[in-house]
Fold:
Amino acid sequence: MKRIALLLITALMATSAAFSQNETDAFRYSFLTPGGTARFESMGGAFGALGADFSSLSVNPAGLGVYRRSEFTISPSLNYTRIGTEYYGTSSEDMEYRLSLQNAGAVISLFTAQGGTEGGWRSFNIGLGINRHNNFNTRWIAQGFNPESSLMTDFLNQANREGSVENLDDFSTGLAWDTWLLDIVDGQFFVDMLDGNVLQRQETISSGSLREFVASLGANYNDRVYLGFTVGVPTIRYEEESIYRESDVNNIDPVFNSLTFTNRHITTGRGYNFKIGAIVRLTDMIRIGGAVHTPTFFRLEDEYRASMRSDLELDYDEDFAQSPIGRFRYELTTPLRAMGSLGMVFGNIGLISMDYEYVDYTQMRLRSSSYSFSDENRVIEDNYTAQHIVRLGGEIRLDPVVLRGGYGYYTSPFRQGVNDASRSVISAGIGLRERNYFLDFGYSLHLTQDDYYLYDPALTNPVRRDTSMNRFILTLGYRF
Structure:
């Protein structure tokens, strides 16, 4: 099996240059920013005690019990992501635009015979559809002059650990050997530009999403207690291509001119989870809610390939080498999630809501029948921590127009001293609500900072990344 990277290359929804299933992959597919309709997005996702929105099926399924009529919704979205980087004093910026389907679903409301009486079960509702939670569409560039090390410094250390030419990795050091970037002199591995002084540049493009198909059942008891249960089937598709270039712009070395190291990989898979929740209407104004999500049990498959090209002042023919296509199947168990919610409804004037969510990322686990992942799971326990999430939202009703706003804060999932990757989400929106239809527009701005290492963190400075993701959602809904 390919080499497993033990060094923590941490970044929120970050990409890894090495082909390995590690803690970065586990976090990428465990971290969620719940998505769905424009109303949900514009109120910061704070719907745990409110319900009657299709997105709540993926947050607190008891919200399905609040529905009084059947409904169909569809929500196209436009995502614009800008990532600014700084690496050894050089700033760069790139951006990505992507259209997608954020939500599509239907709720069927089934009223019981006691629907008009004072007590008993008022209704049972069924919900089916899709909510998109994660967007992996990014494009970023990092460039800077590194006076300390080269990628080949890292490869030399790796080759020394591997011990011999026969043991070189087909996806890294073996490619360097085949393109004459790695050689043996007096029985010892040797590389040029060992101490750096090279211009380094990496371009990374990623795409894909994590979407969840939900099948839910909700119930309403006496318009006071609402219960819900969801079976979630999330699917993952993640594609990445990174092109790393390094060049001797100052002509320091008589042999080395430049190298290009390209990595491509695709991750696909699906999993399943269960969600259960309740909402209690204490008074006509105050509601409280709670929900628990089981871990998601994913089965994933990676397909990957690497290539290397060198430009050297040597009389040789082999300046390009390509690895075989690698494939690896493995399992990922994400952490359990728990949340509590408080909502206040002020009649026909408006409402405010708050959600608190707890998730412990030390509980992520990678597994495979052909590899133990003991080192990777230990790194997860040592470097990740529990995350606390607060989401706030509100709306003002100026019939038939509704104004909305929200805010969310996600604490860093990493232990202090490793990486600060806290996230803020600012949102706003407007809606038009009529008896049989509604039209909502929502906007959210996701802000985060993180550190990304092009290779061994002991050898190089991090790339400081500032990410802003802008999401525009339009929801069309019909009640019947």
Summary: The radius of gyration is 26 Å. Residues 415 and 440 are 39 Å apart (CA to CA). The first helix runs from residue 23 to 30. The chain has a mean pLDDT of 91.
